[in-house]
Amino acid sequence: MTSDPAPARVQSAAALLDRGVHWLIAHWLLAANSLLALWNLLPWLAPLFMRQGWEWPARGIYSLYVLFCHQLPQRSWFLFGPQFTYTRDEILLAWTGTTELSGPLLTMRAFIGAPEMGWKVAWTDRMISFYGGWLLVGLIYALLRDRWRGLSLRWAIVLMLPLFFDGFTHMLSDLGGLREGFREHNLWLATLTNHAFAPAFYAGDQWGSFNSIMRLLSGLLGAFGLIGFAFPYIDRMLRGEAMRR
Q1: Average pLDDT over the chain, rounded to whole?
Q2: Is the Cβ–Cβ distance between 156 and 225 less than 8 Å?
Q3: Judging by beta carbons within 10 Å of its beta carbon (0-12, 13-18, 19+), is residue 215 exposed, middle or buried?
Q4: pLDDT (tens digit, 9 = 90+) per residue, 23-42?
Q5: Torsions phi, psi of 121, nearest 5?
Q6: Domain boundaries in the chain?
Q7: Inter-axis angle of helices 55-65 and 28-52, to 10 degrees?
Q8: Is residue 197 pLDDT above 90, yes or no?
Q9: 3-state DSSP percent of the chain in helix, strand and coil, to 5
Q10: Within 10 Å of residue 185's Cβ, how many Cβ atoms?
């Protein structure tokens, strides 16, 4: 009478799973940074694929990342074109032939570029800064792992507040329409600074504008606050688990 091989297979699978858990506990930071690197790479591949004529994989990336980002082109970076960023009116002219938008503001995210303009990275400058900051802080933590105790929860919240405030004010401003939102013209800032800077600094979302700078800065600060707190916390928790094993 032959023995049932099922228990042996179950034991083998359990042993394999246990080794996998051991490896993940020991190398979780490598795994996390590798996933973050892939997560940050894919949006940049979308414009490359469009340039190469590989439309299906490019649109697949755009469709995936639109779940995490509004992808408005006036707040995005473009590759393989004459300009790195474009104003709202430049995009509307290229897309519709007019500077007027007939639908809601979010309909503009459907514009991914054109051969003469270049192609849009699959998420906006804020997301580039925020998620890119996750990877940057993760790599820094990997280098300083034994010396970095991590941020307190209080400091993590403080560093993330500018991200929430900037995003919330943009959302409120967008309710005012294409041109009337207070973050679109930033007249309040021009008044506070007595128009000390060029008009292009105050209005719009193009590279070098106040809005662009604030999105990049708040994204980086938020990433530093979140990952600077979370990664050391996870590390301490998993090291304790490794010792118990």
Answers
A1: 89
A2: yes
A3: buried
A4: 777 789 999 999 999 999 99
A5: -65, 145
A6: 17-244
A7: 130
A8: yes
A9: 65, 5, 30
A10: 17
207: left (phi over 0), alpha (psi -120 to 50) or beta: beta
Q: pTM score, two decimals?
A: 0.88
Instruction: Report the distance separating Cα 174 and Cα 168, nearest Å.
Output: 10
Q: Give dist(CA 191, CA 99) in Å, integer.
A: 27
Written as six digits, the tokens of 228 are 């600077």
Residue with tokens 């906006």: 124
Band (pLDDT 50/70/90 cuts) for residue 6 is low
CA 89 to chain centre: 25
Cα separation values, 108 from 66, 99, 115, 217, Å:
12, 12, 18, 24
Structure tokens at 163: 């991200």
- Mean pLDDT for 39-50 is 98
Using alpha carbons, list the distances in angstroms from residue 5 to 1, 12, 32. Answer: 12, 11, 37
